[in-house]
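Why do we care about 3D structure at all? Because function follows from shape, and shape follows, mostly, from sequence. That is the central idea of this module. The next example makes it concrete: a single protein chain, its amino acid sequence, and then its structure expressed as tokens.
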Amino acid sequence: MTSPVPVAVPSIRRHRGFLPALLCAVLSYSLMQTLLVPALPALVEGLGLDATGGGWVLTSYLVSGAIAAPILGALGDRFGHRRLLLVSMVAFVAGSVLCIVGGAYPLLLLGRVLQGASTASFPLALAIVRRHLPAEEQPSAVGWLSGTLGLGAGAALVIGGFIAETLSWPWLFVVGAVLGVLSIVLVATRVPRSVRVEGAGGLDGAGAMLLAIGLLSLLVSVAQGSAWGWASPAVLGLAVLAVAAFVALWAVEKRAAHPLVDVRVLSKPALAAVNLLTLLLGFIPYLFYVGLPVLFQAVPPEGFGMDVAQTGFAMLPGAVLVFLGGRLAPMLLAHMPAAVVAVLALLAMAIGGAGAALIPGSLVAVVIFFSLVGLGNGIGFALAADLVSRLVPRDEIAAAVGVNGVLRTVGSAFGTPLTMLVLAGAASESRFMLLFALAAVVSVAGVVLGATVRVPR
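And the structure:
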């Protein structure tokens, strides 16, 4: 890659709203990950959908975001991160408006696909921080961004539950649209222009197409596995297509002059370990995000007989701890090696999963142990974002963090159907114990992996 050539950039000290502007954009994206979850039954009923159709209201956002994040991130590395951040948020607002006024299911799905462009807000915001903030201020800013990423997804369950109980589901998209417009105004007025990269070349069309085919095939096969059958020709065919697309992507990107995904950098052991750790960090919390509402709302003695709003409030401490974990990570990294921080993060998640598995019948215990999972998850998210941005060349940060975000999304996508598989297949008296035990086992594997994380000096 070519070296960045600076252009006239206003002093960051004159932009007091710099970090809040980036946080608002990331919050818009993170809220929309789970804001619809509490209102999904009402939405399904209102549009006359079946369970599969309702699931795609959530899945379309994840699939779109997984494809958009690395592509918009790479374009940001080439043509300016602020410019592409504005593009992604304009698409997000357009999608929100379409969901509000569309009224028909196909238009709702199109709106969700457009909203998915906001997934690029996190890697683009992180790249902007690396470009414009002094080195000593960057870890704190990364912690704020990572914490907001987790806080938004958790707080959305409370906000979505309240709206589902008191208003109609289109109001969920009104919340998104308002936040999106606010983000555009703040980014346009408070974030300085990015540096440009001379001779960076255009978009790697072949790489973008292969990445899109691979991710779309993989995520659709995972999302539809339960409905179509995991051994069905459609699911197996999509899985084979995904593998073929990723193999072709690897071969094409190794020869590309300006690759969308720099596989030489991604294949370095240090970055590969961080990316694999991120896959687990995406997977583990979704076992709780999907499983806990079922547990909380199940009738006693198996569950606690809570309503949607009460469920959201019970999950709020976990969301707050994700945010606090993101803020705590920079302080930990300042005093101990990255491998130790990674081990502590995954160990907290392992203890949280094991504790919830041992006492699934105590509401207080489940909330406390889920909060511990959230704390470890927040630390892990911030650690992964910080390490990726330090392990790649400066002019490839947004693309690399975008790929890292894809792995988090893929982990989340696997977490949802696996949770439903455990809850549907296990005996009622032990299904939540098995689910939380699975989270603990995967977290222990993450502890071992975290111990291998190394950051070259």
